[in-house]
Design a protein that fits this description.
By secondary structure, the chain is α/β, with parallel strands linked by helices. Helices cover 45% and strands 15% of the residues. The structure holds uracil. The site of uracil has 10 residues, from helix 9.
């Protein structure tokens, strides 16, 4: 027998960490409630590199299958935030509101509601993310604008909230490090679609940002992260409960993602549509959702504001041009090219177009948002491989929406592209449309609102 090398401290701590993960997996499978200290230790060990990806994946898969109680989800949220930085907005002297969407196809809502709410005098600090699967991300969309800086340090975030009442930035690496490490793994191990894992992931980032009020836009329908309606309701309720446990005044809206939001899907195309909405264009479904979310954000900051008063402020912010001007001021403050903003035609524009036409006369019965999102991905509007570059000009512009009448040969959608797999994009776009012989009801844009605004303490 050969004498074994004595174990150094690093291997011992790896072995301890490994035994601890296996223990938590076994206890979770046996139906036990995991104590907060165990969850904290697990995330600490993973962030420190003491737990390998394969063991963490097994833990995540166990949680995704079995679920977690709200106390465990709260402990996971705390563990994600621990060891990271937080933006201290306490000194801003105003109530600061944040907004988060669970993601959808054509979801450019943040580009519109943030300046509307800021133009109404309520400060908004918005941390946004990149595209995920078939759904685009606000940061990718905004990167269509030349010069715009989206990697702001905490001090810059505070300064902009103070000076302008509005900031949009990407997530810094130091914010909720536990979530950052875990999310990357979930993305490639099929463990994204879990209510407690999504809730802890989103709320940990919101806690780290430090706003006082939070509006969540939870999507439901074929294009949503969580497609099942009952599960989306559970997600909305869980996030409101969780946010409240962290002292955040939170409301959630369950909004429709059974068809793409607005007409444009793709980065620069969506920025152009958002700018048009800010200039007062009415975009079916999209304009209504922006108005409801803006109203709820105003009421999170000013709980005594009635629906009618809030709606009136939102209308005036758009009709007076104040919201559009706020967007321009904000973008210039974060380095954007003023000429490009003054003339959105200077935003990236694809050199080629393909038209998808109706093969018969009838009514648009449904437009599958996942197929449209995937078609946009195929022409380069998003990433099929992690970290790949994207074509900001590419995407799909719908010419018809659910409930519209069509005649044979009418254009249903335009594909804007340069390179990429145009054949797949065409097939996906054509297959997304279902035409029927009678008119259908258009689903409501807002299904439900959760959580009541209460007077903010901070
Ligand atoms: N967005 C997040 O930030 N986290 C999730 O888990 C899902 C969507």
């Amino acid at each position: 027998l050969q004498a074994r090398e004595p174990m150094d401290n690093t291997s011992r701590s790896r072995q301890d960490a490994s035994a601890h993960v296996l223990g938590t997996i076994a206890r979770k499978r046996a139906g036990e409630l995991l104590p907060a200290r165990d969850i904290k230790r697990l995330i600490e060990d993973f962030v420190a590199g003491r737990v390998p990806d394969y063991q963490m994946s097994a833990w995540l898969a166990t949680v995704a299958c079995i679920g977690m109680e709200i106390e465990e989800t709260e402990a996971l949220t705390r563990a994600y935030v621990a060891g990271g930085m937080s933006v201290d907005l306490g000194g801003v002297g105003k109530r600061v509101i944040d907004k988060h969407s669970t993601g959808g196809v054509g979801d450019k809502v943040s580009l519109v509601v943030t300046p509307i709410v800021a133009a109404c005098g309520v400060a908004v600090a918005k941390m946004s993310g990149r595209g995920l699967g078939h759904a685009g991300g606000t940061i990718d969309k905004l990167e269509s604008i030349r010069g715009l800086r989206l990697d702001l340090a905490a001090a810059e975030v505070r300064a902009l909230v103070n000076e302008l009442g509005m900031v949009i930035t990407g997530q810094s690496a130091e914010l909720a490090p536990g979530d950052k490490a875990t999310y990357a793994l979930r993305d490639v191990t099929g463990t994204v679609e879990s209510v407690p894992l999504i809730a802890a992931s989103i709320i940990s980032k919101k806690v780290a940002v430090g706003a006082h009020g939070l509006l969540l836009d939870v999507k439901t329908g074929a294009g949503a992260l969580i497609q099942d309606h009952a599960m989306a309701v559970h997600l909305a309720q869980t996030m409101v409960d969780l946010a409240t446990r962290f002292g955040l005044d939170c409301r959630a809206v369950l909004s429709d993602m059974s068809q793409p939001l607005g007409f444009a899907v793709g980065n620069a195309l969506e920025v152009k549509e958002a700018l048009a909405a800010l200039r007062g264009d009415s975009i079916p479904g999209f304009t209504e959702l922006c108005r409801v979310l803006s109203r709820l954000m105003l009421q999170l900051a000013l709980p005594d504001l009635s629906d009618a008063e809030a709606d009136q402020q939102v209308s005036v912010a758009v009709s007076s041009g104040a919201a559009h001007e706020k967007f321009l001021q904000w973008a210039r403050a974060q380095g954007a090219d003023a000429a490009q903003l003054a003339n959105p035609d200077l935003l990236p524009t694809a050199p080629r177009r393909e038209f998808i036409r109706a093969d018969r006369t009838g009514w648009v019965e449904s437009i599958d948002p996942r197929a449209i999102g995937n078609a946009a991905l195929r022409v380069g509007a998003g990433r099929l491989v992690q970290g790949a570059p994207i074509d900001h000009s590419a995407g799909i512009v719908l010419q018809r929406r659910v409930g519209d009448a069509v005649a044979a040969g009418d254009c249903l959608a335009e594909i804007h592209y340069d390179e990429g797999d145009i054949t797949s994009a065409k097939n996906l776009t054509a297959s997304a449309f279902t035409l029927g012989i009678s008119q259908v009801c258009v689903p409501p844009v807002v299904h439900q609102v959760f959580g009541a605004a209460s007077r903010l303490q901070r």
